[in-house]
Amino acid sequence: MAGVSLQGLLSRRGLIAIAAVLGWLGLTVQLYLILLLRWEAGASLLGGLVNFFSFFTVLSNTLVASVLTCALNLRISRGQAFMLHPAVSGAVAASIVLVGLAYSLLLRHLWHPQGWQWLADELLHDVMPVLFLIYWWCCVPKGGLRLRHVGLWMLYPILYFAYLLLRGNVLGLYPYPFIAVDKLGYPQVLLNALGILAGFVLVSLLLLGLDRWLGKRPAPPR
Hints:
Transmembrane segments: 15-37, 49-72, 84-106, 118-138, 150-166, 186-208
Number of domains: 1
Number of strands: 0
InterPro entries: Pr6Pr-like
Order of helices and strands: HHHHHHHHHH
Distance between the termini: 8 Å
Keywords: Membrane, Transmembrane, Transmembrane helix
Structural class: mainly alpha
Number of helices: 10
Protein name: Pr6Pr family membrane protein
Largest sheet: none
C-alpha cells in the first residue's frame, strides 16, 4: 500500500509540475510577444513590462503559476505556506475561472490570434483555468472556507479596477474594451465593472459551496 501511495504522490506531483510549466510558458510567450512589438516599434521596453502586468489575465495567471510552483515543495518558506493556504488558493481559483469566463463571453469574438499569440492565448485563457480548477478540486484541503473569505477575495478585482481607472486617466490606455472610459464613459464602464464583479462573486460563492460539500465527504481509504 505504501508503494501505491508513493506512486500516486509522484504522479500527482508530476501533473502539478506540468501544469506549472504550462502556466509559466504561457506567461513567457505573452511577455516576449509584447516586448517584441515594443522593440519593433521603438517604444520603451519598460513600458511594455508595465503594460504586461496591467492585464487581469496576466496577474491571475502569475498567481496560478506561483501556487502550482509552491505546491511542488521545492522550497519551504513562509511565502509558500501563504500561497498554499486554502483561502488564497480559493481566491486564485475564483480569479482564473473569471478570466476564462470573461474571455469566452466578452473578448474571444473580437480577435483571432495566430501562431505564438494563439498559443499564449489558449494557455492563459483556456488551459490554465481548467488545470487550476482541477488542482483546486483534487489537491487543496476543503472545508475551511467561510463567507468572509469571499468578501476578502473581492478586494482583488476592486483594487485592480481602481488601478485601471487611475492608469487610464493618466495615460489614456485601457487593456480591455469594456472598461475604456474614453469610448464608453464612466457610467457604462462602472456598470460593466459591477457586472464583472457580480460574476466574480457568483464564481466565489460556487467555490465556497463546493468547498463545504467536499469538506463533508468522508476521506478516501488509503
